[in-house]
Amino acid sequence: MKTMYGSMGAQASLDRRFGTRSGLGHVLRVALTRIAETVLLWQDRAFQRHALDSLDERALRDMGMSRADVAREAGKPFWRA
Known about the structure:
The protein is built from four helices and no strands. It is mostly helical and 81 residues long.
């Protein structure tokens, strides 16, 4: 991938710009990683709740869930576990 630092990846460009495992570069990298992980978790939750909501009655019975259980779970905001 081509970046403003040439053909190196994002990790290498952060290391070059801020230093490896020290100071601002490390803090920034950790913060961005945690933000990205949180966003991915939220996307996964939203996807799973949508998939659960699309199941038919037979599949829900197989899992021991009612339509009310699904409505309760699917109605949660993506940030709530």
